[in-house]
Amino acid sequence: MSWSPTTSHWGAHRARAATGGTVEVTGHPDDPAPADLLRNADAVAHPTRVRAPAVRRGWLEGGGVRGSDEFVEVGWDTALDLVAEQLRRTPNEAVFAGSYGWASAGRFHHAQSQLRRFLNTIGGCTTSRNTYSTGTSEVLLPHLVGDADIVMRHCDTWDTVREHTDLVVAFGGLSAKNLSVTPGGLTRHSSAVAVGSLTGSGVELAVISPLADDGPPGARWYPVTPATDVALMLGLAHTLLAEDLHDREFLTTRCTGFDVFAEYLRGMRDGVAKTADWAAGICGLPADDIRALARRMAAGRTLVTVSWSLQRIRHGEQPVWAGLALAAMLGQIGLPGGGFAHGYGSMGDIGEAGPLRQLPTLPQGRNPVSSFIPVAKVADMLLHPGQEYDYDGQRRTFPEIRLVYWAGGNPFHHHQDLNRLRRAFAVPETIVVHEPHWTATARHADIVLPVTTTLEREDIGAGRRDTHLTAMHRILDPVGQARDDHDIFLGLAERLGTAEEFTEGRSKRQWLEHLYSRWRADLAAEGHDLPEFAEFWAAGQLRMPATPPRRPLAAFRRGEPLATPSGRIELFSETIAGFGYPDCPGHPTWLAPEISDRWPLRLIAHQPRTRLHSQGDVGSLSQESKVEGREPVRINPRDAAERGIAEGDVVRLFNDRGACLAGARLCDDVSPGVVVLATGAWFDPLEDPAQPGGTLCVHGNPNVLTADVPTSSLSQGCSGQQALVQVERQHGEAPPLRYLAPPRILGGDEQSVEA
Ligand SMILES: Nc1nc2c(c(=O)[nH]1)N[C@H]1C(S)=C(S)[C@@H](COP(=O)(O)OP(=O)(O)OC[C@H]3O[C@@H](n4cnc5c(=O)[nH]c(N)nc54)[C@H](O)[C@@H]3O)O[C@H]1N2
Ligand SMILES: Nc1nc2c(c(=O)[nH]1)N[C@H]1C(S)=C(S)[C@@H](COP(=O)(O)OP(=O)(O)OC[C@H]3O[C@@H](n4cnc5c(=O)[nH]c(N)nc54)[C@H](O)[C@@H]3O)O[C@H]1N2
Ligand SMILES: [Mo]
User: Which residues belong to any copy of the Molybdopterin oxidoreductase N-terminal domain (predicted)?
Assistant: First the structure.
């Protein structure tokens, strides 16, 4: 059989059906660095696929416990009748459909857009704002630079960096594992190649991270103590100030509030000068190295970049703000290859040269309900309806939620303190989940509707800065009775009398043609002549026309004001200071992280190398990385020896909130005092006798350990990147894994009619 074009968040590729219902995949012929993640494609036929609509038995019978109940398979008509009835009886504001998550690539079958479009036809729902990725920066940066995109999306290309930059100072590193991923996917992964060859092209690279492998070979590693980057940045800034290496002209004409920040650096009010020696005592790097780095930064063209991970911890505003202030002192913001950026090494599209343009998009309609939460407040909302909280200068109140609807995300992957999330998920009357797989979220739902994956349907797809638009051909038949999210919502809309509004009379194929044709017309208005849909579909892809490069910071440097109150970069923000939040003052500030004698190790729960979040965890690449079936945890040999832990041992990570098992990998790339357990191992909870009321995740999901606390009252962002833990060898036999098989399902074949 021949290869068909498709795309994924980890890149465009080719696929074809293989025996056993699975697929074969191969990289796109133009891709210089196809993603390893392609190897997880065989997850599509895994036994964890949801085969038929299923309803939690306890929900039908008025009892049971979400997350440990069995399910009853029902036919599609019954399932859709049940969901429609619940939607009919629930007030719209009491329906929470924030439904955060990455789902699959593809512009039409984007699960969250389909969900919101459908719910908007029946009166709307409570939603969520911002992301787990950059929820803190999305709120902070508009106060500092007017538009977050100018430091997160309009960054210099890697070619510009290679040509102009002498030194890249990368707080959080430039992690190769992250570069294969971009929402919607890329056809050519040039960033992966560019980062790998940076130092070879004469660019100096300072990787500031607790992990050596956050940078490519040739980089200089600065093993900073986690959560202390702000102290380091202040120590660098103080050195620039003390040695008169700062750009006064830029600071007075292009920034506001440097005087306040400089007073803080000198310790005029708190009596603590933020010298390199002061910083060294906190961040673990020698003071001489800090001073030398500051001088080096001032001696040439320097790019300061802060990875997104740094704002995904408590007080996550501070490293972003302090990094911006440091770059402002160098006075190179807006010069090619210099200044400040946020997210190189976090996502594959940052630094790519492809066009940044609007892609074909499914219109979602208008949500008549104005109620929303910042995305990471989901457990707080469910547990504390009516409670007030702060958010970006507003005082808001949690709505009372009776029905939770999730399509395209996995909160039992992405949220913190999963034992608390279990308590929160016990609250609503009904939880509906659309899922291809029996994820932990599906297992905590009442009504689980099986959906297709991209391979089982037709779509069009591309990512930000992608070079091509891909015609995503259908490669497999739907697994079991799986339906497209769109068809499920159509079934509901028919029952609720809004089918015409939902579909506008178009079939799925007509929607693809419609979205494409509208997009084509927009491009025609710009003078680009693109083929008709049929021609595009047959070709399998088209090259996207280039966009004129936009360098908003260069324009700012030339005198164009920013959309901030002062029109300048705000190193002190009167607005933020005016909110009076103790956990986010008016200028970059060192706010010491929590430490604890009981929990002496700092866990880094970063993005996984072997999958996208939880997606593909049952695929080959991810499965091959497991140790005794458990997720690998990396630990420095010194910390392992102190605990009698050997390579390959099953270990237990624990703190006040919960515990999980993992498989030990001893590794010198990890600083002493740090352990690394990537996110995304499917939550596999077992009642834990040692932790009354809590559970032990026998597989290795770090979110049983992370705290459900916001970054600050300003942004209420996700702080899940780190947690304080202890680690010990697991004594006795480790409990069996259960996540690789579906939950207990009753009724099965008699009740469900093959589609
Ligand atoms: N501790 C800690 N936690 C974190 C982070 C961290 O750094 N540390 N990072 C956070 C970040 S940055 C993010 S973005 C989040 C990611 O969190 P999520 O985006 O929720 O994670 P995914 O595993 O991608 O979940 C997507 C789900 O959608 C399902 N799916 C795929 N295609 C379809 C479809 O077509 N339709 C439907 N209905 N479902 C589909 C998949 O099976 C999967 O279960 O995690 C966050 N969580
Ligand atoms: N393979 C793969 N790639 C991905 C994803 C995935 O799931 N899999 N997810 C994508 C998504 S949704 C997002 S939002 C981005 C996220 O991009 P990031 O948030 O930047 O990625 P992480 O891997 O979580 O963190 C990057 C590195 O930051 C370092 N770090 C952690 N804490 C500290 C600290 O206190 N100080 C310093 N200096 N460094 C620290 C860690 O060592 C870690 O390896 O990644 C994207 N890329
Ligand atoms: Mo993310």
Answer: 6-41
DSSP class of 155: P
**Closest by CA position to 421, among listed 173, 694, 42:** 694
Mean pLDDT of 197-203: 94
> What average pLDDT does range 279-285 have in this prediction?
98
Q: What is the DSSP string of 72-90?
A: EE--HHHHHHHHHHHHHHS
pLDDT digits (tens, 9 = 90+) for 362-396: 999 999 999 999 999 999 999 999 999 999 999 99
Give residue 748's pLDDT band: very low, low, confident or very high (50, 70, 90): low
Whose atoms come closest to the Cα of 305: which ligand?
Answer: 2
Residue of the CA atom closest to atom 47 of ligand 2: 178
Q: How far is C-alpha 80 from the geometric centre of its chain's CA atoms?
A: 31
Q: Does the C-beta of 695 come closer than 6 Å to ligand 1? A: no
The set of protein residues with a Cβ atom below 6 angstroms from ligand 2 is 133, 171-173, 175, 177-178, 180-181, 208-211, 214, 224, 226-227, 229, 307-310, 312, 346-347, 604, 606-609, 612-613, 721-722
Domain boundaries, given as residue ranges, for the chain: 49-129+371-461+479-505, 135-355+551-579, 601-729
Q: What pLDDT shows up at residue 754?
A: 36
State the pLDDT at residue 750. 42
pLDDT at 637 over 70: yes
Neighbours of 73 (CB within 10 A): 23
The dotted CATH code for 49-129+371-461+479-505 is 3.40.50.740
Q: Pick one of 3.40.630.10, 3.40.50.970, 2.40.40.20, 3.30.720.120 as the CATH number of 601-729.
A: 2.40.40.20
Instruction: Give 747's pLDDT tier (boundaries 50, 70, 90).
Output: confident
Long-range contacts of 283-286 (CB under 8 A, 24+ apart): 283/224, 283/225, 283/228, 283/229, 283/231, 283/232, 283/235, 284/223, 284/224, 284/225, 284/228, 284/671, 285/222, 285/223, 285/224, 285/232
Residue nearest ligand 2's atom 24 by CA = 606
**Of 48, 113, 132, best ligand 1 pocket probe by most atoms within 8 Å of the beta carbon:** 132
Torsion sign across C-alpha atoms 129, 135, 137, 140: positive
Nearest CA-CA partner of 350 in 198, 158, 481: 158
Query: Ligand 3 centre and the CA of 595: distance in Å?
Result: 26
Residue type, 209: S
Which percentage of the chain shows pLDDT scores above 90?
A: 96
Residue 78 is encoded by which pair of tokens? 């019954």
Mean pLDDT of the chain: 96
Whose alpha carbon is nearest atom 1 of ligand 1? 720
Q: Which residues contact 427 (CB under 8 A, 6 or more apart)?
A: 382, 383, 401
What letter does residue 670 receive in the DSSP assignment? B
Ligand 1 contact via 439 beta carbon (within 6 Å):
yes
Nearest to 679 by CA among 698, 656, 704: 704
pTM: 0.97
Name the nearest CA neighbour of 226 among 727, 729, 728, 719. 719
Distance of alpha carbon 119 from alpha carbon 406, whole angstroms: 12
pLDDT digits (tens, 9 = 90+) for 150-162: 999 999 999 999 9
The alpha carbon of 619 and the centre of ligand 3 are apart by a number of angstroms equal to 20
Kindly identify the ligand whose nearest atom is closest to the C-alpha of 37. Answer: 2
- Strand stretches in 403-528, DSSP E: 403-407, 430-435, 447-450, 459-461, 468-472
> Is 2.30.38.10 the CATH number for 135-355+551-579?
no
